[in-house]
């Protein structure tokens, strides 16, 4: 129980310091630290990441940063496709799941190392940096122009996020944040807040699907979840004091080390 709480605080701390992508360390903490299987760890990791993300999403809603219509559409498609990921997770061998998760961590580390430092503007209304992006904000209303192209883009993003979430027990922030940055003209504060809302919704859907499949969370898992929320709150308070590039490089290095170890275990 104590070890689960310790790993939970550490995971939540990293999640709070680095943003949505930090939740990818929840599954390795349970698999490598507590000796759980991937199928056991996935729902607990989803619950922990989703609960911590909900804290940030509520704060984003309070400040009017969340693109809630986009978040609801992505989460709705995630709800439809998350059970497909859960089904495959129970069909694939444990070694295959660990290899897939390791490759995912390498991809996240690579994106983190090459990511430019976000430049926040005075408001959440961004501007396209190149051409006409798939989803553009209306200059008068500050909301998305819901064209067929924009709707289809967000729907596909939701479907992919749902499958990956159900399969590997991750919230999908590592997909949502870069996709929003590439395909919309929303500024970074709005992207992160919207991502956190999507993560909390999709994680909740994934957890419900896992419960339906017969998975249960024991006292050790509950301790991990509660501790992760505490760690996330602490991390959000500390993040402003640590240089962004230091966080990026440190988090990417941890991801690469854990991915290498998981590959060896697999």
From TrEMBL:
<feature type="transmembrane region" description="Helical">
    <location>
        <begin position="36"/>
        <end position="58"/>
    </location>
</feature>
<feature type="transmembrane region" description="Helical">
    <location>
        <begin position="246"/>
        <end position="264"/>
    </location>
</feature>
<dbReference type="InterPro" id="IPR002781">
    <property type="entry name" value="TM_pro_TauE-like"/>
</dbReference>
<keyword id="KW-0472">Membrane</keyword>
<feature type="transmembrane region" description="Helical">
    <location>
        <begin position="95"/>
        <end position="113"/>
    </location>
</feature>
<dbReference type="InterPro" id="IPR051598">
    <property type="entry name" value="TSUP/Inactive_protease-like"/>
</dbReference>
<keyword id="KW-1003">Cell membrane</keyword>
<keyword id="KW-1133">Transmembrane helix</keyword>
<dbReference type="Pfam" id="PF01925">
    <property type="entry name" value="TauE"/>
</dbReference>
<dbReference type="GO" id="GO:0005886">
    <property type="term" value="C:plasma membrane"/>
</dbReference>
<keyword id="KW-0812">Transmembrane</keyword>
<feature type="transmembrane region" description="Helical">
    <location>
        <begin position="186"/>
        <end position="208"/>
    </location>
</feature>
<feature type="transmembrane region" description="Helical">
    <location>
        <begin position="70"/>
        <end position="89"/>
    </location>
</feature>
<comment type="similarity">
    <text>Belongs to the 4-toluene sulfonate uptake permease (TSUP) (TC 2.A.102) family.</text>
</comment>
<feature type="transmembrane region" description="Helical">
    <location>
        <begin position="152"/>
        <end position="180"/>
    </location>
</feature>
<protein>
    <recommendedName>
        <fullName>Probable membrane transporter protein</fullName>
    </recommendedName>
</protein>
